[in-house]
Input
Amino acid sequence: MTNLTSYKVLSFDCYGTLVDWESGLHSAFLSTVNPPVSQHTKPEILHAFHSLEKEHQSLHPDLPYSQLLTKIHPLLATKLGIEVPAEQKSKEFGDSVGSWPAFPDTVSALQRLQKHFKLVILSNTDRISFSATNSTQMRGIQFDAILTAQDIGSYKPDKRNFEYMLNHVQQEWGIAKDQVLQTAQSQFHDHHPAKDMGIKSAWIVRPGAIMGEQAGKEIFDWKFDTMGEMADAVERELEGEASK
Output
């Protein structure tokens, strides 16, 4: 297997990999609906959301993510048998992305990895939402490219998103597909389409995560529980190379 340090670009999913998408979304939903919601577990809410998100990303591929969340919010409440919230509450839910917390290891791991790789965001969010995340939850991290579903006009797992990313890194830096490593938590959004595109991938498992599951085989070339573990592995490789 090729070493991690053989790659030049890490293409990241953001929400679910770098940011705790599930906890952030769950908290935002609970704060924008009327009680009672105690009869529904967190997994039940997230699974219901994921089915609606998948449907509406397919129906509205050019709708910015914050607006997609606003549209899904009352549908999710209805699906769960909760009182339909006011429009303002749905907008608050849609605008909540920037407040979703980064995982504790994210910033430190990115600071270590950016010494050796170009860091690219390939996210299903929109430009304003990601900017809010980058300026708060991941403050101080300078990404080399930020490519959102809003820029591309489709949502992952659409292969157009990966083609767009590959074209960008080739045109901007002359970096070919075999030097790009897709780094993500979601099997559904990232690993399965990346394999179909011939892109190698590192699976950041985030133990306990339930969204982004894909029926069938788990696909990955490397597997780490956290971004911190991946950064450790890269540094071990570099130390080994230096000692030769």
